[in-house]
Design brief:
heterodimer, A: mainly beta, six-stranded mixed beta sheet, four-stranded antiparallel beta sheet, globular, B: mainly beta, 13 strands
Chain lengths: 116, 118
């Protein structure tokens, strides 16, 4: 069965430090992979997505992610974290019914705290 | 377009009562999704519509849950005989096609309806 694992429940980094959030997936076919961010009491906003091609994808707010098929991973990175990045981050894989990108399996999320 | 809109934002109900939530998707989107998110968990897929047709339902969607999208625009999610375990955030999302090649877009999420069953 398809699944997404985010091994880190909570991460704290200092403002200006680099960030890497881990995501591993289990999916039989070529995955469509996503990272979403959720601020408290809000819905989810898409940061970036991977379908095919270049395995390093750029997203909004200075985030990037690298797809590694051999490791079944899609880790999210940012070179310098800002206090406004504090939020919960979700990795997801699309089950892709007929090209739909909305049938998603999410990980449990990683909560990011930023120290001043 | 102001994005996906969900109403109400918060709902407190007594156990055993029925509740209904509404979702207005982005107007040109033909696909609509419902998710449930409990504390400390990621969103879990409940059901999916393409236009007015309900194409997929999760096993999480018990017979107390029903979703409709009668004219292929807004959708409602009804929970009958609510239980305390139904307390959660209910998220709606929509996606559609864009550009001259009709590429599918990613899912855009609303802010959710937080249900508390007391």
């Amino acid at each position: 069965a398809q699944s997404v694992t985010q091994p880190d429940i909570h991460i704290t980094v200092s403002e200006g430090a680099s960030l890497e959030l881990r995501c591993n997936y289990s999916y039989g076919a070529t995955p469509y992979l996503f990272w979403y961010v959720q601020s408290p009491g809000q819905g989810l906003q898409l940061l970036l997505k991977y379908f095919s091609g270049d395995t390093l994808v750029q997203g909004i707010k200075g985030f990037e992610a690298e797809f590694k098929r051999s490791q079944s991973s899609f880790n999210l990175r940012k070179p310098s974290v800002h206090w406004s990045d504090a939020a919960e981050y979700f990795c997801a894989v699309s089950v892709n019914y007929g090209g739909s990108q909305g049938n998603l399996i999410f990980g449990k999320g990683t909560k990011l705290s930023v120290k001043p | 377009d102001t994005g996906v809109s969900q109403n109400p934002r918060h709902k407190i109900t007594k156990r055993g009562q029925n509740v209904t939530f509404r979702c207005d998707p982005i107007s040109e989107h033909n696909r609509l999704y419902w998710y449930r998110q409990t504390l400390g968990q990621g969103p879990e897929f409940l059901t999916y519509f393409q236009n007015e047709a309900q194409l997929e339902k999760s096993r999480l969607l018990s017979d107390r849950f029903s979703a409709e999208r009668p004219k292929g625009s807004f959708s409602t999610l009804e929970i009958q005989r609510t239980e305390q375990g139904d307390s959660a955030m209910y998220l709606c999302a929509s996606s559609g096609r864009t550009g001259s090649y009709g590429m599918n877009t990613e899912a855009f999420f609303g802010q959710g309806t937080r249900l508390t069953v007391v």
